[in-house]
Amino acid sequence: xxxxxxxxxxxxxxxxxxxxxxxxxxxxxxxxxxxxxxxxxxxxxxxxxxxxxxxxxxxxxxxxxxxxxxxxxxxxxxxxxxxxxxxxxxxxxxxxxxxxxxxxxxxxxxxxxxxxxxxxxxxxxxxxxxxxxxxxxxxxxxxxxxxxxxxxxxxxxxxxxxxxxxxxxxxxxxxxxxxxxxxxxxxxxxxxxxxxxxxxxxxxxxxxxxxxxxxxxxxxxxxxxxxxxxxxxxxxxxxxxxxxxxxxxxxxxxxxxxxxxxxxxxxxxxxxxx
Length: 274
Hints:
Strand order of the largest sheet: 1-2-3
Order of helices and strands: HHHHEHEEHHHEEHHHH
Oligomer: single chain
Shape: globular
Mean pLDDT: 82
Helix content: 40-55%
C-alpha cells in the first residue's frame, strides 16, 4: 500500500453537521483537507461561509469589494479550479489580484480564453477548448511561457494543453487565430469596449448565425441540402441559438434573420446545388 492509499484509508467518517454543510452549500472540498482537518474544522467551515465564498473565475476577474472590507485574518471559502478551500481573506485577495495583474498585462490562460470566447460566441466552452487545442497543436494559436513561445512539437506535459497552467496567450495572437478561423468576433482586452454592443440588433443576429455555422465547420455559402427525415443545418442552428442566445432570438426573429441572410440581395447563406 503506497502513501496515498494509506492517507485515503485514514480519512475519518464525516460528521453529520459537516456533511450537511457540504451538501447544502454545494462545497467541493479536497478529501485530504478533511483528513488533515483540525477538530474544529466544521465550526471553521461554518464561520468561513458566514464571511463569504469567493471564486477565481475563468474569465475576466474582478476584485470583490466585500472581500476587501474583511479583516485580513478572517477565513473565507475560496474556489479555484472547482475546489473549495478555507483560506485567510488576505490570501484570497492576493490570489485574485495576481490574476487581475496578469490580465492587465494582456496575458490570458487557456481556460480563460475558452470561457471568454464561449460567452462572446454562444458556443459551448468545451467546444472552444477543443478548437484551441487543435489550433495550438497545428501552430495557428501561439502560447507563451515566461515570455517565450511554447513549441507544440516539444510540449511534453502529459495532460497536453489541458495541463496548461503558467502558459498564456495574448489578444493579438488570439485574434490572429480567430481571423484565420473565420470567426465573426474579436477577443477584446479589458480596456476595449466591445463593438458588438453598438451594432444594430439585426446585424448581431446575422453575425450570431454566421458564427455558429463557421464554428460548426459549415461554409455559409455552400450549406448541405436537407435530407428527408433528418434535421437540417437550419434546425440545428435554431435549436442551439434559441437555447443559448435568448437575448437575441425568438422563434420569429430567428426565422426573419435566416430569411434575411438567404435573401438574394445579400446572399450570405446559400444552399449547395449538389
